[in-house]
Design goal:
The complex is a heterodimer. Chain A is an alpha/beta fold. Chain A is built from eleven helices and six strands. In chain A, strand 4, helix 9 and strand 5 form a beta-alpha-beta unit. Chain A is globular. In chain A, 37% of the residues are buried. Chain B is built from 19 helices and no strands. The chains are: A alpha/beta, B mainly alpha. Chains A and B meet through helix 1 and helix 5 of A and helix 9 and helix 19 of B.
Chain lengths: 356, 455
């Protein structure tokens, strides 16, 4: 028996010494072997010495995989945002804008993480020909400064110039799994998880769409207060603070005039939009006003799909309250191109061009 | 520095242990090694923080020394006041100002002081020493072991709260004495279990708890969400805090030092008194010896007992945080203890299962109060738990089930120290592999602070 024996057996010091040595030996040897494996495979294509492998996007952890897309130098334009922008196909925008887009939107990305990605792109690939920022709650979060990192963690070490410091950060489960997948990819046992322009369909396949299930996922909108309270006074709205908008403004200010800038409020279902009459609605309205002002100041096109419209009120367009379906993404990409390149207004009220 | 960081496990702990055992032949040298390591460990957050514990230690020791020479109790009272003043200033000043503001309508300025980490723990240890001196139960120690008793890094930040007479005599013992490899082997096992509880369970539960309690501030949760959040927080709090304790006890054991037990599977308690004999044991003992018994305890009539219990638990709540919800949580438990005491005097014991169920429901309701940001949110959550705000499904059932099993089945640190007799190598291999898994997991992002650091 491992635990208290009915008749205690005396253990010699040697037994305990062996126990401690085996424990420490497994720990030390295991750590060294795993570390060497990860470093040799180099799952993020970043360290100076590694095996020459075909490195593709084999992980859905965008924060870790995307820096190599930027470093590749294949792309001159980018899409930022959260999962609400992930389904915008860069190839569709490539054809319209005649540029090479990468979709670098990250699931659950905070505004700070998006800003870090933009800074990295600017530093590594130079000013983009076209920048599309998919706007949602992250940019309007009053606590954005205190909530810079999402629950996924942000590997800032992958976003600097120093390939040597990356050696300090390779010992983690994410790198190990990605390294194993890369080996699997070489052996034909594993497939890539996203195209090398960052695009991947993360929602289930279209043929499996189930409206009843989607309706359950979408839920209902929070009811409006009854009676509706009066709008907040102007001075109270002016006191609202959106730290992320300061970063957005500063980032856009760094772009040259010939970079085309697009700020797009992405179309979440109306159930996920703030209910009129609530403080959240006032907060969002003020945030939109300020983003419009930033757009005007920085020469950006501001387009708003985050409104009650035939698109956002129809449950059949959504998997859940945040994520629209792939055909909707195609529509949004086309509408975005039309709005930016031709100033085309929506004929069914699906979106509104707020600026310029 | 955090116990569950790769730097601590792979560099700091091995380096300090190596240096410590190189100096093992000299009590003076090895104590200095631990003092230096503790200061580095504490200064890792903010080097300015070091001034406060060092200042409180030196002043407390000087006052105790002066008392030894003059026998003036006023010096000890001054020492207690000094430590309370420090604790009060850094932890409670803004709370007191806010409460005065609410009561009077006056607009008062705020200090906005940074709360030095671990201040409640080291202040209480110094106060306990001074009270023991008043009672004639504490000698004058040389400054070095006295400072090490407070600073010793495994317990400095979040306990266990250690008494001087539990720790100082151990500093004189040669760490290479009999049982060296057993202590190191078991220290590794206990540390690794705590490590795993923290990074594989408690932090995962946190990702359920935080959004749900944040949501509860803006709208009422449904039944499923409320139970998910409450159960997840109950397990998170226990696993997080007991994990810290186990990592502290494991680290200390590697240095040949034994820290006291802090948890004994509290969610198996069958009544609320039993719960407090299993939950944060060193704090319970501290409050019993320095607050409850001096207030009269249970041997001076019912009204005195009720007063002593409620005041003690109110202090317990306030110790956890500068907020009225914490005080209310303390009174809630005080009330529970009083009712439990009364019931037990009736000599009509409840069936064990019923006792366990009642106790857990009581404790869960208390955790809602403890975690909620305000009484309004707590009230809304309690109503949600009763299903007033609609139904819904409990989330993350596998994770909650794993947390429940670990909470119920994994022995406490001292159960392992006392009961682990046969060092099978398969256990060592499993322990080493588990430690590797934890190291790989914490390498994924910034380590998450322990909940009790804020107290």
């Amino acid at each position: 028996m491992l635990w208290r024996s009915a008749q205690p057996r005396t253990c010699r010091t040697a037994d305990w010494r062996a126990f401690a040595f085996v424990f420490l030996g497994v720990l030390a040897v295991g750590c060294v072997m795993i570390y060497l494996f990860i470093v040799l495979i180099d799952p993020y294509g970043v360290v100076p010495f590694s095996l020459p492998l075909d490195r593709r996007i084999v992980s859905t952890h965008q924060r870790y995989m995307f820096p190599q897309i930027v470093r590749s130098g294949h792309f001159d334009s980018l899409i930022l945002g959260t999962s609400t922008s992930r389904l915008i196909d860069p190839e569709r925008l490539d054809r319209a804008f005649h540029v090479r887009f990468a979709n670098l939107a990250m699931s659950g990305a905070t505004a700070w993480e998006q800003k870090a990605m933009l800074d990295f792109f600017l530093h590594t690939a130079g000013p983009p020909k076209v920048l599309v920022v998919g706007i949602d709650g992250a940019w309007c979060n009053p606590k954005a400064d205190g909530e810079r990192e999402s629950i996924y963690g942000f590997p800032d070490w992958l976003y600097d110039d120093d390939p040597w410091n990356d050696y300090f950060y390779f010992f983690n489960s994410e790198a190990l799994i990605t390294a194993v997948r890369l080996v699997g990819l070489q052996l034909g046992w594993y497939r890539e998880r996203a195209r090398f322009d960052g695009y991947a369909v993360f929602v289930p396949p279209e043929p499996t769409y189930d409206l009843a299930r989607a309706q359950k996922n979408i839920g209902t909108r929070e009811p409006s207060p009854n009676p509706l309270p009066p709008p907040l006074p102007a001075d109270e709205r002016s006191r609202m603070s959106f730290p992320a908008l300061v970063w957005l403004d500063a980032s856009l200010a760094r772009l040259p005039a010939d970079s085309r800038k697009v700020l797009a409020f992405m179309p979440v279902h109306v159930a996920a939009q703030p209910t009129p009459g609530t403080y959240r609605a006032e907060l969002e309205a003020e945030c939109k006003t300020r983003i419009m002002a930033i757009g005007r100041d920085r020469g950006a096109t501001v387009i708003d799909w985050r409104i009650a419209s035939p698109l956002t009120t129809e449950n059949k367009n959504y998997w859940d309250r945040l994520h629209y379906r792939v055909p909707v993404a195609t529509r949004v990409a086309d509408q975005l191109a039309g709005a930016v390149l031709e100033g085309r207004q929506s004929d069914d009220g699906t979106y509104v061009i707020l600026a310029p | 520095m955090l116990f569950q960081s790769q730097f601590y496990v792979l560099i700091f702990l091995p380096a300090v242990a190596a240096l410590y055992y190189l100096c093992a032949g000299s009590a003076v040298k090895r104590q200095w090694v631990l003092i230096a390591a503790s200061l580095v460990f504490y200064a890792w957050w903010d080097v300015r923080f070091v001034v406060l514990p060092v200042g409180q230690i030196v002043l407390t020791w000087l006052l105790a020394l002066a008392h030894e020479r003059s026998k003036s109790r006023a010096l000890l009272i001054a020492g207690i006041a000094l430590n309370l003043l420090s604790l009060g200033t850094f932890k409670y000043l803004d709370f007191i100002l806010g409460s005065i503001e609410s009561a009077t309508g006056l607009v008062l300025p705020r200090a906005h002081l940074i709360l030095p980490i671990g201040i409640s723990f080291f202040s209480f240890q110094l106060i306990s020493y001074l009270i023991d001196r008043m009672r004639g139960q504490a000698p004058i120690y040389p400054l070095r072991p006295f400072a090490l008793f407070v600073l010793l890094y495994p317990h400095l930040i979040a306990g266990p709260i250690v008494r001087h007479n539990e720790l100082v005599p151990q500093f004189a013992l040669d760490p290479r004495r009999d049982g060296l490899w057993r202590r190191i082997g078991i220290g590794l096992v206990v540390f690794t279990l705590g490590f795993a509880k923290k990074v594989l369970l408690a932090d995962k539960l946190g990702s359920i708890v935080d959004p749900l309690f944040a949501q509860a501030q803006t709208h009422a949760l449904n039944l499923g969400e409320a139970w998910s959040g409450t159960l997840a927080f109950s397990f998170q709090l226990f696993l997080d805090f007991s994990a810290y304790t186990e990592m502290a006890i494991g680290s200390a054991l590697i240095f040949g030092l034994i820290l006291p037990e802090n948890f004994r599977r509290p969610y198996l308690a069958t009544d609320i008194r039993d719960f407090w004999r299993r939950w944060h044991i060193t704090l319970s003992n501290f409050l019993r010896d320095y607050v409850y018994i001096p207030l009269g305890g249970s041997r001076n009539g019912v009204s005195r007992y009720l007063l002593a219990t409620l005041v003690t638990m109110g202090v317990c709540g306030l110790w956890h945080g500068a907020g009225w919800t914490y005080v209310a949580w303390g009174f809630w438990h005080g009330l529970g203890l009083a009712v439990c005491h009364g019931w037990q005097r009736l000599d009509r014991p409840m069936p064990k299962v019923a006792g366990w169920a009642v106790t857990m429901l009581f404790v869960l309701a208390g955790w809602v109060l403890f975690r909620a940001s305000s009484f309004g949110v707590a009230g809304s959550l309690l109503l949600s738990l009763l299903g007033v705000h609609g139904s819904g499904h409990v989330e993350a059932i596998p994770l909650l089930a794993a947390a429940a099993l670990v909470s119920a089945l994994v022995p406490s640190a001292h159960e392992i120290i006392d009961g682990f007799r046969l060092p099978f190598r398969a256990v060592a291999v499993a322990g080493g592999l588990l430690a590797i898994c934890c190291l790989l997991e914490v390498g994924r992002g910034a380590p998450v602070n322990f909940i009790y650091f804020q107290f």
